């Protein structure tokens, strides 16, 4: 097992994180699945064990806003697999679609702490560990806002993802001259709770958004196997692994009248 590629994916009990864990296991990796709640971690690990070798799966509860828990996540994986080849800062929260001043103080704090502080803690722990072992790759899960686009109602979320883009670029500079690879993942629009939950209880907003989702979005199981292959193949720092490129986006709109997709049935 020590010869396998060892990967840690934060926030991997559901959504894109779970999809990445599943895809990486299919490609022969040893994967550490993590999330805040131990029950969710155990369930995710059990589900993954149905299709993959249980010995290749390690489940550890980790609140990424607690530095000591992030360090434990690294230490436990290193003890189990002998090394950590890839660390993916995936844990993230969305929020109700509303203006910044309409968000509650608790939502403001939770989103910033999880999306930004969690990635900063993860990066700090991973870089320290990878410098000691002499190699490794770190990827930040960027998203809407990372490229500077601004959308009404998601100012908070977009701000955190813009911060991750800066974190990625800055870490590329700070790790120059080492054997550490820092990059980012931009999965595009993927049908997960992160995308749809902010629209719960808002039927008019949902009806406006649904046609766009059906044109641009993809299911987790479509996107994550491709992302996993790109992550394992990449050997260059500063690479952003993008699923939904501008060219793909144009093509999706051009062919939309002929495809008639419904991702929600």
Task: Provide key terms for this protein.
globular, alpha/beta, 7-stranded parallel β-sheet, 265 residues, Rossmann fold, 9 helices
Brief sketch in words of this structure:
With 265 residues, the protein is of the alpha/beta class.
What does this structure look like?
A 7-stranded parallel sheet has the order 3-2-1-4-5-6-7, with helices on both faces. The model has no long low-confidence stretch (mean pLDDT 94). It is built from 9 helices and 7 strands, in the order βαβαβαβαβαβαααβα. It is of the alpha/beta class. It has helices spanning 15-26, 38-49, 67-81, 105-133, 155-174, 193-196, 203-216, 220-233, 246-259; strands at residues 6-9, 30-35, 57-61, 86-89, 136-141, 180-186, 240-242. It has one domain (6-190, 220-245): Rossmann fold, CATH 3.40.50. The protein is globular, with a radius of gyration of 18 Å. 51% of the residues lie in helices and 13% in strands.
Give me the secondary-structure topology.
Blueprint: E1 6-9, H1 15-26, E2 30-35, H2 38-49, E3 57-61, H3 67-81, E4 86-89, H4 105-133, E5 136-141, H5 155-174, E6 180-186, H6 193-196, H7 203-216, H8 220-233, E7 240-242, H9 246-259
Parallel strand pairs: 1-2, 1-4, 2-3, 4-5, 5-6, 6-7
Helix pairs in contact: 1-8, 3-4, 4-5
């Amino acid at each position: 097992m020590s010869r396998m590629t060892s990967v840690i994916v934060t926030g991997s009990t559901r959504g894109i994180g779970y999809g990445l864990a599943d895809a990486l296991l299919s490609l022969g990796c040893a994967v550490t699945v993590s999330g805040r709640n131990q029950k969710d971690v155990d369930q995710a690990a059990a589900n993954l064990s149905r299709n993959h070798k249980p010995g290749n799966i390690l489940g550890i509860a980790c609140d990424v806003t607690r530095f000591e828990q992030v360090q434990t996540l690294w230490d436990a994986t290193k003890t189990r697999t002998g090394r950590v080849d890839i660390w993916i800062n995936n844990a993230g929260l969305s929020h109700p679609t509303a203006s910044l001043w309409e968000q509650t103080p608790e939502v403001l704090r939770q989103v910033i702490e999880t999306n930004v502080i969690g990635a900063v803690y993860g990066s700090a722990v991973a870089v320290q560990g990878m410098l000691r072992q002499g190699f490794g790759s770190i990827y930040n899960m960027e998203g809407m806002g990372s490229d500077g686009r601004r959308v009404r109602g998601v100012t908070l979320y977009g701000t955190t993802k813009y911060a991750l883009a800066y974190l990625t670029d800055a870490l590329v500079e700070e790790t120059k001259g080492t054997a550490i690879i820092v990059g980012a993942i931009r999965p595009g629009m993927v049908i997960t709770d992160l995308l749809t939950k902010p629209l719960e209880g808002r039927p008019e907003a949902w009806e406006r958004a649904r046609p766009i989702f059906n044109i641009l979005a993809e299911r987790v199981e479509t996107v994550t196997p491709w992302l996993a292959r790109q992550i394992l193949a990449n050997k260059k720092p500063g690479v952003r692994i993008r699923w939904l490129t501008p060219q793909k986006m144009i093509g999706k709109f051009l062919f939309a009248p002929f495809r008639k997709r419904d991702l929600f049935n």
